[in-house]
Structure to design on (228 residues):
């Protein structure tokens, strides 16, 4: 069965600083990987996804993530954080085959941005 | 294009009451899902559907029921509400296949007292 671990429950960074949110997954084959962002009181919105090809993927709002098969990781990065990036971030893994399009979500990382 | 809409946004139920959470999507996606999100936790799948007339249980289905009579609508029914069902509920839709992202509604915050 697939699983996702986000080791950091809460991260605080200063505005303008760089950011890296960690995500580790467990899945037997090449996974489909996603990062979603959830602003307070909102549903989840896709930031970026990986399913094949270039292991460095670009997303919206200046985010990027790198798929590292050897480390079973898909860490999210941003070179310079803005106050509006404060939110909860979820990593998710989707499976190939007849899984009805289901994804397994991590427990999330809450990002606080200091002025 | 509204995407996925959910009603109501907020609801307070007394123990033992029942209610239906509504979910509608206008993207013509076959696959739909209901999740619950408890504080500090990720999303837990309650039920899902791969098309009209087809539903299946997720990892936390107890206390809930669903139906899918049309592609657009996927209501979630709570029978005999319990405090353990206090949560935020999200509906989502996707084209299917594991590489397609899910599109989420804004959520329903439910409190059972």
């Amino acid at each position: 069965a697939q699983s996702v671990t986000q080791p950091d429950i809460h991260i605080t960074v200063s505005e303008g600083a760089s950011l890296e949110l960690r995500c580790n997954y467990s899945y037997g084959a090449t996974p489909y990987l996603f990062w979603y962002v959830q602003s307070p009181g909102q549903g989840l919105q896709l930031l970026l996804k990986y399913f094949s090809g270039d292991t460095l993927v670009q997303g919206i709002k200046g985010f990027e993530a790198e798929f590292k098969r050897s480390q079973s990781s898909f860490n999210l990065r941003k070179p310079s954080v803005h106050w509006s990036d404060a939110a909860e971030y979820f990593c998710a893994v989707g499976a190939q085959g007849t899984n009805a399009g289901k994804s397994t979500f991590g427990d999330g990382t809450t990002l606080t941005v200091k002025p | 294009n509204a995407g996925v809409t959910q009603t109501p946004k907020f609801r307070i139920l007394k123990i033992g009451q029942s209610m239906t959470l509504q979910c509608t999507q206008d993207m013509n996606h076959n696959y739909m899902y209901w999740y619950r999100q408890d504080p500090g936790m990720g999303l837990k799948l309650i039920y899902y559907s791969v098309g009209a007339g087809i539903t299946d249980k997720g990892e936390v289905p107890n206390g809930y029921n669903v139906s899918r009579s049309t592609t657009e609508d996927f209501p979630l029914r709570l029978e005999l509400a319990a405090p353990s069902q206090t949560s935020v509920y999200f509906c989502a839709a996707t084209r299917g296949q594991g590489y397609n992202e899910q599109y989420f509604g804004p959520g329903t915050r439910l409190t059972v007292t």
In short: DSSP finds no helices and twelve strands in chain A. The two ends of chain A are 41 Å apart (CA to CA). Chain A has a mean pLDDT of 92.
